[in-house]
């Protein structure tokens, strides 16, 4: 059997980049997939490419939808249940960088739109599939985070703030449903050579900072993180191999996640692979009143 044989997944932002690659890997692993995104033509292209690879009983379905609009998300969930019968996995991949520049100089409407897509477009789909998961007694949610979650990104504040919020939401929702066999995790995919990165480089060092611009430029020149790397992690998190692992931020490039099941008690009993506050003693300093 393949890792995802018979499973049904929703992948948001599935018409290009990482979302399209995750969909490809899910199909290869045996899953049927509903992909959604704002550009219908892109979704149709992904579907056409994958249809010749489908095994008996496998399907790829598409719905044009904006994850920042709750009614459209409700339609995606309803259509998935109608066409594919159930939902086992939700991959909240849709996201944008948003405006680039100092916070008082960027367009406020664009800033809040980025929050709506990156954060609300993760929270609401998770909320929308939850009744179905609770009824079935199981389900998995995979949220795509990024470098903005663990490091400040001057000049890309909407992205950084929203991605940090996605991780804290992941941790919180995971605890809310931990006893219901519903697992919620976030992944840091690495620096990918996608159209989002192209937008960042096009903005230039004046908008995103010279040091960050140079680092991204060098990484992308060297090829960046292959899209297959985070897609492989998404397959693993959707599979039975990851059962019991929840509420974690996992770096696709660096973390030895395939060994995590051997350390399940330590993962569930500590705050490793989560976002936490750094206090003086964490850096070997003797001052401060933190325990």
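-> sequence recovered:
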């Amino acid at each position: 059997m393949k890792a995802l044989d018979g499973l049904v997944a929703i992948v948001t932002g599935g018409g290009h980049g990482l979302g399209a690659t995750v969909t490809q890997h899910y199909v290869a692993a045996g899953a049927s997939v509903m992909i959604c995104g704002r550009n219908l033509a892109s979704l149709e292209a992904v579907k056409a490419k994958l249809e010749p690879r489908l095994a008996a009983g496998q399907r790829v379905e598409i719905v044009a939808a904006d994850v920042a609009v709750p009614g459209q998300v409700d339609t995606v969930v309803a259509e998935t249940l109608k066409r594919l019968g159930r939902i086992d996995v939700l991959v909240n991949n849709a996201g944008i960088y948003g405006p680039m520049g100092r916070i008082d100089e960027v367009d406020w409407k664009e800033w809040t739109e980025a929050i709506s897509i990156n954060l609300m477009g993760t929270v609401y789909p998770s909320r929308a599939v939850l009744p179905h998961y609770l009824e079935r007694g199981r389900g998995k949610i995979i949220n795509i985070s990024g470098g903005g979650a663990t490091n400040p990104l001057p000049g890309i504040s909407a992205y950084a703030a929203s991605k940090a919020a996605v991780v804290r939401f992941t941790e919180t929702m995971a605890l809310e449903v931990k006893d219901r066999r519903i697992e919620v995790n976030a992944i840091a995919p690495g620096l990918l050579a996608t159209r989002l990165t192209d937008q960042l480089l096009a903005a230039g060092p004046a908008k995103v900072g010279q040091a960050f611009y140079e680092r991204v430029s060098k990484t992308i020149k060297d090829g960046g993180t292959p899209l297959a790397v985070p897609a492989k992690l998404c397959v693993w998190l959707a599979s039975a191999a990851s059962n019991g692992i929840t509420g974690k931020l996992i770096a696709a490039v660096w973390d030895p996640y395939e060994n995590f099941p051997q350390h399940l008690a330590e993962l569930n009993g500590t705050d490793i692979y989560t976002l936490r506050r750094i206090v003086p003693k964490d850096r070997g300093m003797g001052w401060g009143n933190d325990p």
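The chain has a mean pLDDT of 93.
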